[in-house]
Amino acid sequence: MTTPPCLLSSWHQYESELYYWLLSRTADGVMSFDLLQETFLRALQLQTDFCNVRNQRAWLYSVAHHLLVDEQRRSAKLSELCEEDFLNTEMSAEVVEPIDSLAQCLPNVLLHLNANAQDILKRCDIEGMPQKAYAKLHSLSLSATKSRLLRARKQLKLILKSQCHIKFDENNHVCCFYSDTK
C-alpha cells in the first residue's frame, strides 16, 4: 500500500500551518502533534479518494477541528471553541488568518525600528494615510516616500521574522508564527 503523491504533496504543504493552528487552539504542543498525526491517518485512510477532494486544505482543517472538539469533550476541558465559531468560518478553511493574528507582535516590533521607519509605517500602513499626503507633509518626493516605505517594510519584515518566528508559504504569505513575547 503506497501513499498517493497528491496526499503527500498536500500534507507537506499544510502540515506546519495546521500544526500551528492546532497549537493556537490547545496551547499544548503534544496534544497538537497527536491531533496532527491523527488528521494525517484519516487522510491516509482515504488513499486515492483524497486526490478527489476538491479543497484538500479545508478537508484537513475540518478533520483536525472535529478531532480537536472530540478530544476536548473526552478530556472534559470545555473551552471557548464552539461549533458555531467554526461554521461561521466558511468551509474554505478561512480560520483566522495568521497575518491577522500577527497584530499582537506589531507594537513590540515597531519599537525596534528607527523613528522615521516607525512614523512612515504607522501613518501609511496602519493609519492609512496616502503616500502622496505623507510626501507632502514631510516635504519629500513621492518616489522618496515610496523608497522609505519599502525600506521600512523590509526592516519590519526582518524583525518580525526574528521576534515572532514567522514562516512564509511558497507565495510569500505568512502561514504561521509564534511569539516569545506573551
UniProtKB/TrEMBL annotation:
<dbReference type="Pfam" id="PF08281">
    <property type="entry name" value="Sigma70_r4_2"/>
</dbReference>
<feature type="domain" description="RNA polymerase sigma-70 region 2">
    <location>
        <begin position="12"/>
        <end position="76"/>
    </location>
</feature>
<dbReference type="GO" id="GO:0006352">
    <property type="term" value="P:DNA-templated transcription initiation"/>
</dbReference>
<keyword id="KW-0731">Sigma factor</keyword>
<dbReference type="InterPro" id="IPR013324">
    <property type="entry name" value="RNA_pol_sigma_r3/r4-like"/>
</dbReference>
<dbReference type="Pfam" id="PF04542">
    <property type="entry name" value="Sigma70_r2"/>
</dbReference>
<keyword id="KW-0238">DNA-binding</keyword>
<dbReference type="GO" id="GO:0003677">
    <property type="term" value="F:DNA binding"/>
</dbReference>
<feature type="domain" description="RNA polymerase sigma factor 70 region 4 type 2">
    <location>
        <begin position="104"/>
        <end position="156"/>
    </location>
</feature>
<keyword id="KW-0805">Transcription regulation</keyword>
<keyword id="KW-0804">Transcription</keyword>
<comment type="similarity">
    <text>Belongs to the sigma-70 factor family. ECF subfamily.</text>
</comment>
<dbReference type="InterPro" id="IPR013249">
    <property type="entry name" value="RNA_pol_sigma70_r4_t2"/>
</dbReference>
<dbReference type="InterPro" id="IPR036388">
    <property type="entry name" value="WH-like_DNA-bd_sf"/>
</dbReference>
<dbReference type="InterPro" id="IPR007627">
    <property type="entry name" value="RNA_pol_sigma70_r2"/>
</dbReference>
<dbReference type="GO" id="GO:0016987">
    <property type="term" value="F:sigma factor activity"/>
</dbReference>
<dbReference type="InterPro" id="IPR013325">
    <property type="entry name" value="RNA_pol_sigma_r2"/>
</dbReference>
<protein>
    <submittedName>
        <fullName>Sigma-70 family RNA polymerase sigma factor</fullName>
    </submittedName>
</protein>
<dbReference type="InterPro" id="IPR039425">
    <property type="entry name" value="RNA_pol_sigma-70-like"/>
</dbReference>
<dbReference type="InterPro" id="IPR014284">
    <property type="entry name" value="RNA_pol_sigma-70_dom"/>
</dbReference>
